[in-house]
Design brief:
By secondary structure, the protein is mainly beta. The chain is built from no helices and 16 strands.
Length: about 190
């Protein structure tokens, strides 16, 4: 019975001993191939975030191992705006939901039936859309697994208004002035 726990070639040496017979040695080899049935998140969208501030998001199942072998990888952030996103922490879960905490190297091993959970952070450096991805860096040629990250940087709200000065208005009287409020930024302004 051949039940590999990792992909690649595996060999074993069998030795046979028999009374009144010479010693016999046999090498048996097999190659494990990835079944390629991973499930991974395609898109992770952060809420609009002010430039200079930050928001965190938990990606519950960045990748799920539905194979019968171990999945190894090393995460890195890439794409158009990798400096706006970071990996804050990660945990690996086995099929029973038992977690193990990842180390600073961003290397991971997902057991059969397990999954990877990643906490990411978005800290925009400019106004506008930011795009990046977490490359899971799997040790397989089977699939190029990337978690897409999208966020929108917003400017601090800057508004100005004209002055309105009322002269003496008697109790119960009315006087009306117009006030102009101008939105000088790109964030939404609502006046209530």
């Amino acid at each position: 019975l051949y039940t590999p726990t990792s992909h690649g070639e595996h060999c074993a040496i069998l030795s046979f001993y028999a009374t009144c017979s010479p010693f016999v040695k046999m090498t048996i080899c097999g190659e494990a191939i990835e079944p390629c049935d991973y499930i991974h998140v395609e898109d992770t969208i952060f809420a609009n975030t002010l430039v200079g501030s930050k928001k965190s998001m938990l990606i519950n199942k960045a990748i799920e191992n539905k194979s019968n072998i171990l999945i190894n990888g090393k995460m890195s952030v890439g794409g158009a705006n990798p400096g706006d996103f970071s990996i804050k922490s990660y945990r690996m879960f086995d099929r029973n939901g038992n977690p193990s905490v990842g180390d600073p190297s961003n290397s991971f091993t997902i057991k059969p039936g397990g999954h990877l959970e990643i906490t990411t952070e978005f800290k925009p450096t400019a106004v506008g859309k930011s795009l990046a991805f977490i490359d899971l860096g799997l040790d397989t040629v089977c699939v190029d697994a990337k978690v897409q990250l999208t966020g929108e940087g917003e400017a601090q709200l800057t508004a100005s208004a004209t002055d309105a000065i009322w002269n003496c208005v008697p109790v119960g009287g009315k006087d009306q002035k117009n006030v102009v409020i101008t939105n000088n930024g790109n964030s939404e302004l609502s006046v209530k």
